[in-house]
Automatic annotation (TrEMBL):
InterPro entries: Porin_dom_sf
Signal peptide coordinates: 1-20
Keyword set, alphabetical order: Signal
Name used for this protein in its record: Outer membrane porin
Length: 73
């Protein structure tokens, strides 16, 4: 099911690129690709005495993100 959804999304994305340019070759020659990669780190250090005794543990989280866009000329 995931493969079918991915295939459909790819087909829709490619058809919009072809629709925006005269040919697929023009779309790739005159197009502009943009993107950004992000990484976030969040950490929290708990003082065990102030936040519930020995059961309070430190926590941390690492998150990554990717955004890509394509515009034909």
């Amino acid at each position: 099911m995931k493969l079918a959804k991915l295939s459909l999304a790819t087909l829709i994305a490619m058809s919009s690129v072809v629709y925006g340019a005269d040919t697929l070759e023009d779309a790739f020659k005159n197009g502009k690709v943009n993107g950004e990669i992000r990484a976030f780190y969040f950490g929290r250090d708990y003082d065990a005495a102030a936040h519930g005794g020995p059961g309070a543990t430190d926590s941390s989280l690492m998150a990554f993100g990717l955004r890509l866009s394509y515009e034909d000329g």
